[in-house]
Design goal:
This protein is an all-alpha fold and 216 residues long. It is built from ten helices and no strands. It has two domains: 64 residues, Orthogonal Bundle (Arc Repressor Mutant, subunit A); 132 residues, Tetracycline Repressor, domain 2 (Orthogonal Bundle).
Length: 216
């Protein structure tokens, strides 16, 4: 094998690690600025400066401003530096594997409590920007629709246990879960009333059990 080919193969992992580190820096800078200054008030130049790269590198690493926003949202949801479909997330797999409605509720509520500190500021920033920017508005509609669809799947999963109240339809169950796990509800209790994320998670689990499950 030629020496130049060996050298390229040797350095390829290092280049990939540097590229991944740059991407993380860019997304973290974008997340911080979008959630503190708002999407309209943040420029790509400011994001690049905070990430320690030039604008061309930012574009090559992630993309332009609308793409940056989408990646910030998706990585907030996944907790990783790339998007992960809902059905492939660990907590969703754990919910599907659980055999009782109570266990499914507990897993989901705990996951929301863990995710809240990183997802809620991003969702609130996205909603605020949706009123002024068409790219943000389209993304907000998409994310809202995805949440609603996922709540219907969760309701059906709970229904399969035979433990849901018979007077509630799956659509009503999905709507209740959708409303109470919203960014607004989290912000009211955690940011507005000083609850910890963990207390919020325990409250969700207790409230859902009381509202959704048939009394024993």
């Amino acid at each position: 094998m030629p020496d130049d080919v060996k050298a390229r193969r040797y350095h390829a992992p290092q280049r990939a690690e540097r590229a991944a580190a740059t991407r993380r820096s860019v997304l973290e800078a974008a997340r911080l600025l979008f959630t503190t200054r708002g999407y309209p008030g943040t420029t790509v130049t400011e994001i690049a400066r905070r990430a320690g790269v030039n604008v061309d590198t930012l574009y090559a690493t992630v993309g332009r401003k609308p793409t940056l926003l989408r990646e910030v949202v998706e990585t907030a949801l996944s907790g990783l530096d790339h998007a992960v479909p809902a059905e492939e997330r660990d907590y969703v797999r754990a919910i599907r594997a659980a055999t009782t409605a109570g266990a499914k509720i507990d897993i989901y509520a705990a996951a929301l409590a863990r995710m809240g500190p990183r997802t809620v500021p991003v969702f609130l920033a996205l909603r605020a920007a949706a009123d002024r920017d068409p790219d943000c508005a389209a993304l907000h509609v998409e994310i809202t629709g995805r949440r609603a669809a996922n709540m219907r799947l969760f309701a059906a999963d709970l229904r399969a246990t035979g433990e849901l109240r018979p007077d509630l339809t799956d659509e009503e169950v999905a709507d209740i879960v959708w409303a109470t796990n919203s960014a607004d509800y989290y912000a009211l209790l955690v940011d507005g009333r000083g609850w910890s994320p963990e207390r919020y998670g325990r409250h969700l689990a207790d409230a859902w059990r009381r509202m959704l499950l048939e009394p024993r």
